[in-house]
Amino acid sequence: MERKLKILITDDSKLLRKKLRTELENLGCEVIEAENGKEAVLIDLQEKPDGVFLDIVMPEVGGIEALQVMREVHPEMPVIMLSSAGTPQKLMETLKLGALDFIQKPYTSAQIKKALEAIRKKVEQDEQ
To answer: Hey, which CATH number is domain 6-109, 3.40.50.2300, 3.30.1330.60, 3.30.1540.10, 3.40.50.150?
Structure first.
């Protein structure tokens, strides 16, 4: 029996968080939400999620800054970047910083499932 993954969703769009939460809960995850990068970093420190879906463009603290801080605290934690403004430059920057993958919005269920499988694989490797 696979253990439940604890996933943090970070996006300033409440609608997107709700949609992604439903998607992830249907795939058997426990979901925590944050609406900006600052909140995401605090939740990351307290909850230590197994993985994170992180929007790039957000008010206060953006996804790239949040990713940098999370990498310092949990270098192994799998992070999937989400963005509607998917510039190749930002994509390269997040991958350089250690993001596991990058999903362009609007995403498909198949993309979320694939990303979740990548997170699970990474978590299982790290636990061995």
So the answer is: 3.40.50.2300
